[in-house]
Amino acid sequence: MLVLAIETSTPQTSVALGTEQGVIGSTSLSWAKGHSEIVAPAIDHLLGWAEIRPGQIGGVAVGLGPGLFTGLRVGVTTARTMAQVLGVPIVGIASLDALAFSVRYSKWRVVAVSDGKRGEVFSAGYRQVPGGVARETEYQVGPPERLAADLEASGEETLLVGGGALLYRRTLESGGGRVEFASFSRAFPHAESLLELALPKFHREETSRPAEVVPYYVRKSDAEIDWGRAGRVA
Amino acid sequence: MRVLGIETSCDETAVAVVEDGHKVLSNVLSSQHEIHGRFGGVVPELASRAHLERLNPLVEDALAEAGTRWSEIEGVAVTRGPGLAGALLVGLAGAKAVALALDLPLIAVNHLEGHIYANFLEHGPPDPPYVVLLVSGGHTMLVHMPEEHRYEILGQTVDDAAGEAFDKVARFLGLGYPGGPAVDLLARRGNPEAVRFPRAMAGSGDFDFSLSGLKTAVIRHVKAERAAGREPSVEDLAASFQEAVVDVQVQKTVAAAEATGVGTVLMGGGVVANSRLRERMALEAEARGLRLLSPSPELCTDNAAMIAAAGHFRLVRGGRSSFDVSVEPGLPLG
Lengths: 234, 334
Ligand SMILES: [Zn+2]
What we know:
The complex is a heterodimer of chains A (234) and B (334).
Chain A: E1 3-7, E2 13-19, E3 22-29, H1 35-49, E4 59-63, H2 69-86, E5 90-93, H3 95-101, E6 109-115, E7 121-129, E8 132-135, E9 140-142, H4 144-154, E10 158-161, H5 163-167, H6 169-174, E11 179-181, H7 191-203, H8 222-230
Helix pairs in contact in A: 1-2, 3-7
Chain B: E1 2-7, E2 12-19, E3 23-31, H1 33-36, H2 44-66, E4 73-81, H3 85-102, E5 106-110, H4 111-123, E6 130-135, E7 140-145, E8 152-156, H5 162-172, H6 179-187, H7 212-227, H8 234-260, E9 264-268, H9 275-288, E10 291-293, H10 297-300, H11 305-315
Parallel strand pairs in B: 1-4, 4-5, 6-9, 9-10
Antiparallel strand pairs in B: 1-2, 2-3, 6-7, 7-8
Helix pairs in contact in B: 2-3, 4-11, 5-6, 5-7, 5-8, 6-8, 8-9
The structure holds zinc ion.
Zinc ion binds at residues 111, 115, 136, 269-270, 302 of chain B.
């Protein structure tokens, strides 16, 4: 089965095409242009280079975040609409899950951390299980200091993976927890990880219809936060 | 030729199928007024989230209502600006995905051009040149079009847009959001001559507008009346305020047509749904022997049929956007 995977929850835009036999092709770019300018040309290039017609795509996998709202909207809208027009199922995967999956061989506890901007990080904790990782916390958003305190409190050896972990490395180390950092080649969730996580779901038919797939925002919009705080907007 | 249009520049998610640039096969939209109403204005993040959820079901509806299969669509037109960046992004990503999946030409359209081409939907293309009055929540301008797709801005607002003035005054009068329809409705029962509000820049000799002072004048008037122990009639206030806005617009549009020697006047934008503006402009155009075109009220407010129409007329001239086209929140007309 041919699957198109799209991941846009971080500054990196990543697109991959693949089947059960492996990745056919992938592109990742995290520089200069916005997600919107990269996603469609990247898909177009991959299809062209691989000489694959869009109609041959059997399913679309997409990273749902949590992460950057703007990127997520581009990726999720592209995935939903491609799936809708092609009449194929869609599988949404949490981007933090994809990040943790990329370091699944670690014996340590894994915490995936992505930059949430405004001095905050998105994070979730995972434990190794046969064939992958299992999430054992909610998706969270908060200042890195809070995550550092959690790591110290757990006292467990933890592997931190993701751009948010590298960005706040000093803070996360200073908590006194026993932490290690995955290298920068693992900084962003990759569409190839989505492919790998999504393929079994397509086979088990754990799929969604396009209109059912929405990003994990985790954080409310600013207006709602202000509204809740003040009870009204000035 | 059938073109799919997508519009998500502000707080309406809209999708349409238009044939040959003028025949509206379907024109569906989902308004977000219930989401933004309590905030008194459009909240960009909430608008973006709503667009994402509503776009795909609306695409389905638009095709079904048009009785059209994907194989019959020959182009995808989408608004790339001006508008809210996050909102525009959803429509653009969706349009690119359709074009990509079906190997169709993508045409990224200027929202303001859409408002102008809304006139072509019912009347077919009128012969240029035209003078266009564009009035909406974000814009108030007079444009000279010597030919199709050529725009010379004659003048525009130096502060608030007309729709913005309607919203602000409506909020002050406690009429809710959006303000335009509420003011229009109340004004029908009021006396437009009750209060003589200032006609800002009416005699300025150019084609610029200024609307921010008008709101202040309305507030000052109400305070003065209350200080004198009188409660002014909301109907009269609405009618008098509206008359001040309409007066200047009609006068400047006619002057622009005469200055450029153009015999055809088009109107476009959400404020053109205002019944008083339509009525006064029709009378003035008739008196001066000008041909006046305006879209029917439901095609004045934001919709995707106008985007499909504008896209159609670009496409037939070979216009086509590449997949790396980006949104342009401040996109100028031209
Ligand atoms: Zn508009």
